[in-house]
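Quick one:
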Amino acid sequence: METQRVICDVLCVGGGIAGLMAAIAASENGAVKVVVAEKSNTMHSGAAGMGNDHFQCYIPDVHGDYEAFANDLLYGQFAGRISAMGREAMDFWFKNSYEIVKLWESWGIPMKYEGRYEFAGHSFPGQTLNHLKYSGFNQKPILTKQAREHSVEILNRVMVFDLITDGQGKVIGALGISTREDKLIEFEAKSVILGTGPCVRMWPAPGLQDFNRPLPPSCTGDGRAMAYRAGAELVDLELTAVHAGPKYLARAGQATWIGVLRDRYDKPVGTFLTKPNRYYNDMTLEVNKGIFNEYIKSGKGPIYMDTRGMSEEDLQYMLYWMKHEGNIELIKHLAEEGIDLRKNAVEFMTYDMHIVGGIPYNSKGQTSLEGLYAAGDEWAGGISCAAVFGWSAGKNAALYATSVTSTDLDKVKTDINTRKEMLQDLRSRKDGPKWQEANYALQQIMRDYCYTVKSEPLLEAGLETLIRLKEKTHQYLMAENPHELMHCLEVFNLLDLAELVFVGSLDRKETRGINFIRPDYILTNPMLDAKRHLIRKGPDGLPVTEWRKI
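Output:
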């Protein structure tokens, strides 16, 4: 296997919103050489790759008093996620969000609708609207262009799979592979920023096709896994969420729909809306995305998104935003089949489960390891979160890089060679299971032992089964080409994170929300409301958990 060394001031792992914003900011703040390593292509990679139509933000001229705005946030749809960050990080996020809006406008991303800032969706009726509707279909090509104009070097088709430390808890680089050639890439970096997005493919897909998911299946928690292996703290990894939307065509964008959720007999499922409203979507779906599964299992029947009764103007408004949310294939299908949403309701379903916990970072993007920064869906998530904290992480990583000297990777050559041997073993095996088999086995374990309802007997049995799968996967998995090697490394990351989900679930002796139910600990412990559940690798290599006040 060929080896290439890349020396840089700042390495951005992942070329999504967070990674590209971080790279541009790093370049503007003194970093001489900034590199983005993206295992796909930054033009259309990541959770924002197909576009987006909402940017959560605070605009003073629109929202007025910030404290009133902030109080609404703490009682809105994303209250739990925002509260977990802490008030300081929340204030930093939203007080800086308008600067990003203006910056994106100046770069050519349309942030206004018909000449004005338009807010709609993701809020309960009567609450302050905090999601700006914007035309994000071409946001990734525009951000990629900006990065290149800032002299950022973009390495597409490169998967970074492990961080390199100096043995004392300081990150000094990373290891990656080309997904097109048999090549190991050693990144010698003064600072590293993780922006690899959410964690998908740990649980089964909502349909028969494994890549039919609302979040990109290429996002497999790579940043979380490599951060943990390097010694960083992760938080609330056992807490999960689900999406929901049109049945059998898993797509994000449920808040774009202008309609009311109704059962088979036209009765509204929730109490928030009785008729379509372009500014306030039916929040029943946001309160409980699992309600579609619950209705089916209880025999109540399917639930439909009823868009009947909306005006032609509202229909065109909705279709416009669907395009920018990345639902072009859905729009094409409706047109081909002659489906008029003013006359037809659409059945919805609950999609797959995914992790919401991740790598805790502060307003500077700093993690628990020196030299390591993170942003975006590595923890809190969302487009504006990725943009604001990516920008901050890039700035602070660049400032840090100017204050330190790089560490020659030859000093840790033994560790690098060990990982290179692992890669060569995977590529040299002539017989054995492929990555798909291991991934499906993992999904079955997570579905059967660590789904919504969990208990000590289930979790203990599932963890034992997972450990056996993990051992056999490392022993027998094979990769016939560099692309399959990438998928093998993704599966390794998923297996590592799944183990942490089991350990964290066993340690959380309570029920919390609708996706973490412990019949053996049925009550929610209010003493844990203001605490983070941390997990890190202990001295013996095993996971160690800790509860820490926010």
